[in-house]
Design a protein that fits this description.
The protein is mainly beta. Helices cover about 15% and strands about 45% of the residues. A 12-stranded antiparallel beta barrel has the order 1-2-3-4-5-6-8-9-10-11-12-13. A hairpin with a 2-residue loop joins strand 8 and strand 9. The mean pLDDT is about 85.
């Protein structure tokens, strides 16, 4: 498939996602007072391509995130209160929450059996980090501003983690971690915007909702813009903003209706387009001392899955497909994402 066809398809993905977005925003009624989320939410994210039966590229990610109960602007600690004043939206219909997360991502070549990685294969890389976020939202809109600090390279312990898991599961040992990216501190600032619109189907709890999203990231680890949307459909779909797989960051949300709708089940389908200016696991260390591959600036994404909620528990499983992220890549990449949330 030539490059023009690839780019055309990626543009179509992005256009479809934004059509969802504009459809979601049409006719939205502003000013609705949301129910304050009085519970904290702890979320465990586990991404892995072993769910799909492969072991390559973005091969594993683990993230634990905690969102604190919501408060009014004047109750936020400084400097979160200062940050909130810079975000769109003010008044009694806007609420705020602070969150924290820690995690680790693991990236490997397609062929991990050779001690010397192939020149046209994905570099070995590990990324371990701590993050904090401010969420600012009303009943239909969510703004997030997140700061992430972490480390690329051997201190991330990605190689040790993968070898341990492979040994425990009887999988062949990866041999090339001595060639991973060098140690480099990582800084990432991320802004997320989401807008939810719900469409009830009858009077039996069935509904469809649309959640368009925009994400901007800036940092030496990744710099990109992402535009997409997710459609959810089912019984008692949670009135939150949809929790995405951890490669896009992610924090769990306590639904506003957790006290009135104790059970729900739904499916979802999402699409997005990524415009990537930098990805350290493909472009190599900032000092240029590492082997790199030629990054693809346009990446398309498709996600589909199922969610089940019962009282304060919420389980989501999805499969994610990404188009080629570097020129030498042979086909797209798929991985599974498991998310478990508990509000308390």
């Amino acid at each position: 498939m030539n490059e023009r066809v690839k780019v055309t398809r990626l543009c179509k993905w992005a256009c479809v996602a934004w059509l969802f977005a504009w459809g979601a925003m049409a006719g939205v009624e502003e000013g609705e007072i949301p129910t304050s989320r009085e519970l904290a939410t702890l979320t465990l994210f586990v991404d892995n391509d072993l769910y799909i039966g492969t072991d390559r590229y973005y091969t594993h990610g683990t993230r634990i995130a905690l969102m604190l109960p919501e408060v009014k602007l004047e109750q936020l600690p400084w400097p979160y209160r200062w940050v909130a004043t810079m975000l769109p939206g003010e008044g009694d219909d806007w609420l705020n929450s602070v969150g924290f997360a820690l995690g680790q991502n693991i990236y490997t070549p397609e062929d991990t059996r050779v001690p010397e990685p192939l020149a046209d294969d994905h570099p070995y890389a590990g990324w371990a980090y701590l993050a904090t976020v401010l969420q600012h939202r009303n009943a239909t809109q969510l703004h997030e501003l997140e700061l992430t600090l972490g480390i690329i390279g051997p201190p991330s312990q990605a190689g040790a983690a993968q070898r341990l898991v492979h040994k425990a599961r009887g999988i062949e040992r990866p041999e090339g971690w001595e060639h991973q990216l060098d140690t480099e501190p990582g800084v990432l600032v991320e802004y997320n915007y989401r807008h939810r619109r719900s469409y009830p189907v009858g009077d039996d709890g069935l509904e469809v909702d649309l959640v368009p999203r925009f994400t901007g990231r800036l940092g030496n680890v990744r710099t990109e813009a992402v535009a997409g949307a997710t459609m959810r459909f089912g019984y008692n779909v949670p009135d939150d903003f949809h929790t995405v797989h951890l490669d896009l960051g992610g924090y769990g949300y306590e639904p506003d209706d957790v006290e009135t709708n104790t059970f729900g089940i739904y499916g979802f389908l999402g699409a997005a387009g990524h415009l990537v200016a930098r990805n350290i696991v493909l472009d190599g260390n900032t000092n240029g001392n590492n082997r790199t591959v030629e990054r693809t600036p346009w990446v398309g994404e498709l996600e589909y899955g199922i969610g089940i909620r019962y009282k304060q528990m919420h389980l989501i499983y999805s499969q994610v497909y990404l188009t080629e992220q570097f020129r030498e890549q042979r086909g797209g990449h798929r991985f599974g994402s498991l998310i478990l949330m508990m509000s308390f």
